[in-house]
Task: structure prediction
Amino acid sequence: MQSFISKTIHKLGAKLIRIAHIMYVNPQEKRCIPWFQDNGDKTLRLNYSLNDKSIVLDLGGYEGQWASDIFSRYCCFIHVFEPVERFANQIEQRFSHNDKIQVHHFGLSKLNQKEQIFINGDSSSTFKTDSDREEIHLVKAINFISEYNIDFIDLIKINIEGGEYDLLEHLLESGFIKNIANIQVQFHDFIPNAEARMIKIQQELSKSHFLTYQYPFVWENWQIKS
Result:
């Protein structure tokens, strides 16, 4: 009898732990569950109508894996932007024999400016605080586009840990947003007025683009209207 009672208590305890985990799981983890169930990183983020002449911008290159996956499928031209020096150097070395992938040691934003970035792997951000930080350079997006004579972008991927708001607002205000076929973006909720700014950006995007998939505050893609 004592053994039975002990086993029952053990089972109940395990169930309670699982229930507690479900109830108190991090909100971002909850948001990611449908994305991982749909295997979005290996499907939605890579399935585009691209070819070897396409122009792709990868904002937030980190280790260069997404750029590598896109190139292996389409052999397109890719500009990778990574303002953290150690990450940019690693990406540059990774693609050192690939003339179609160009690595830029700066980020794109609404202004030419210097910022302090707090480094935490692929979550490095100018909006968070940590002990490990460095000064980075940001370049006004329209200036870069003009300097490189880019008149159309087939795909832009934006994962820049809070910087997406300034960048997209800048591209919308400039009007160049209408020259981007696909906008793959991850919005982040840890900056002031994040949801309100996101909704406003989405409303403006809907005038020229339409959603092909959306997992709120995880990943979404906007495709230009015909």
Remarks:
- Strands lie at 55-59, 77-81, 101-104, 107-109, 113-118, 133-140, 155-158, 182-185, 209-215, 219-224.
- Helices lie at 2-23, 27-37, 65-74, 85-94, 141-147, 164-174, 194-205.
